[in-house]
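2024-03-11 09:14:02 INFO worker-7 job=invfold-0412 stage=load source=structure_tokens
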């Protein structure tokens, strides 16, 4: 659904947002265009014949020109950002996709991302009387401050399958409180140790009952709040990952049979591997799913996860949320926490990188991106790391055995002993999390060279061959746009960029 149709729906559903939506559109177009230009400068994309800073030669001889600063990762582009393809000036990223001859389905995703991002900007959190980190907010409150989604993905706000009413009702950036629907399942169709009751997202539940009339309503849960991922919700006792058949960024967010089986096993493994480290992994437990043709169905499944444990006076926040605007003054949360940016950055990087490298050395590569990597703050100071959501990890049976641990039985593509695959997963911590936070601090006046040197020292302190490779090799970054255009969009595609951790 594009910007014009969304505006019509906004006017009908939330007329007070119409003016703010109109004013937010130029900013949203600029943000998505900047991400798209960034992808064109670094990813293996169709139609790109040659590259130079600010200039891309398109197959057939056309020239795409733009401000090279706008295509840098984590750029803050001005509203009205444009590019020129041949003689045509373009400010709408969906139009650029069409001119490049890429599929209309992808053009629609880009248009939807622009419109939903503008809708998020039009409906910001209400102002607060003091910085929000000072108020001891819950995790859901902080996660719902994130308006712009994935910092590098041009499909950062794609919600394929949802209309405006759905986005307003269920998108975490609109701060809803929901109730999961309990659907009773015939016992012979149930997978799981608990009672045969599926916890279904309220968007998904009526669609499931229409396809499977033998699912019977069994009431609803208490109030829950969606976290950054939309389909994962915070309850009074923990978190629940649900299946939502909506295209968001790179995938339809279901709960695969492999995740149901691997989650509890990986939780137990990581509990052992993280012993003695300032990094904890909340357990995944109590998987449940409906059997269809004898197998757990990814569209009819749920998985429980422990909430991060915090002590009195502590606050836990995803690293991605630190770049979000504080409702108090519009400045990134990070700037309220990091009153001394260099000391704060030293504390964070020395908490983050040595444990990640230690766990990798023991046999598990965590894909530590900004949504699933959280920092616990005490008085604003980082004191430990929490890693959640085990779907993207890789496990080395050989390294586990060398550490004296029997590898658990795992399904899917998690097991690998390829050191490059393992290190690539870990490098996501640099490619997304670290780079975004450095950009935030740099815009506030911090010296990025000094910040990167501190991060490099934290990596080097691990003293492992993996650490040496992370410092020396080009930095892999997930090619999210190339993945969306690939025949199988679920396969990881990586590209390499200059490594800011590299030693001179």
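2024-03-11 09:14:09 INFO worker-7 stage=emit residues=504
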């Amino acid at each position: 659904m594009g910007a014009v149709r969304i505006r019509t729906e906004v006017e009908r559903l939330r007329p007070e947002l119409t003016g703010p939506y109109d004013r937010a559109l130029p900013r949203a177009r600029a943000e998505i265009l900047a991400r798209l230009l960034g992808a064109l400068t670094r990813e293996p994309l169709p139609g790109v014949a040659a590259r130079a800073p600010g200039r891309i030669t398109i197959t057939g001889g056309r020239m795409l020109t733009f401000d090279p600063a706008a295509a840098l990762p984590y750029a803050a582009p001005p509203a009205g950002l444009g590019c020129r393809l041949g003689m045509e000036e373009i400010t709408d990223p969906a139009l650029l996709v069409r001119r490049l001859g890429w599929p209309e389905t992808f053009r629609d995703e880009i248009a939807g991302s622009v419109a939903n991002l503008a809708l998020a900007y039009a409906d910001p959190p209400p102002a607060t009387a003091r910085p929000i980190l000072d108020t001891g907010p819950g995790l859901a409150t902080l996660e719902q401050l994130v308006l712009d989604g994935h910092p590098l993905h041009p499909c950062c706000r794609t919600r394929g399958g949802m209309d405006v009413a759905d986005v307003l009702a269920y998108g975490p950036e609109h701060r809803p409180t929901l109730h999961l629907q309990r659907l009773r399942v015939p016992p012979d169709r149930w997978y799981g140790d608990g009672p045969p009751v599926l916890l279904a997202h309220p968007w998904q539940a009526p669609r499931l009952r229409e396809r499977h009339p033998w699912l019977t309503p069994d009431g609803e849960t208490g109030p829950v709040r969606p976290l950054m991922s939309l389909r994962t919700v915070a309850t009074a006792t923990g978190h629940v990952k649900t299946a939502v058949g909506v295209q968001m960024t790179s995938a339809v967010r279901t709960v695969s049979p492999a995740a149901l089986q691997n989650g509890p096993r990986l939780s137990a493994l990581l509990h052992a591997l993280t012993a003695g480290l300032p990094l904890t992994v909340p357990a995944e437990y109590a998987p449940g799913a409906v059997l269809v043709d004898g197998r757990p169905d990814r569209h009819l499944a749920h998985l429980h996860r422990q909430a991060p444990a915090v002590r009195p006076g502590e606050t836990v926040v995803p690293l991605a949320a630190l770049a979000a605007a504080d409702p108090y003054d519009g400045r990134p949360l990070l700037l309220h926490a990091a009153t001394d940016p260099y000391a704060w950055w030293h504390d964070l990087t020395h908490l983050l990188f040595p444990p990640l490298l230690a766990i990798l050395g023991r046999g598990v590569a965590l894909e530590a991106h900004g949504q699933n990597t959280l920092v616990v703050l005490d008085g604003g100071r980082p004191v430990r790391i929490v890693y959640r959501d085990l779907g993207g990890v890789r496990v080395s049976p050989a390294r586990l055995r060398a550490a004296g641990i029997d590898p658990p039985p795992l399904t899917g593509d998690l097991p690998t002993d390829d050191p490059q695959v393992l290190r690539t997963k870990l490098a996501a911590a640099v490619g997304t999390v670290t780079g975004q936070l450095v950009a935030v601090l740099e815009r506030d006046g911090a010296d990025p060279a000094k910040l990167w040197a501190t991060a490099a020292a934290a990596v080097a302190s691990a003293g492992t061959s993996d650490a040496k490779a992370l410092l020396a090799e080009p930095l892999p970054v997930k090619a999210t746009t190339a993945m969306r255009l690939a025949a199988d969009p679920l396969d990881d595609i990586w590209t390499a960029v200059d490594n800011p951790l590299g030693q001179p």
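2024-03-11 09:14:09 INFO worker-7 stage=report msg="The CA atoms of residues 2 and 111 lie 5 Å apart."
2024-03-11 09:14:10 INFO worker-7 job finished
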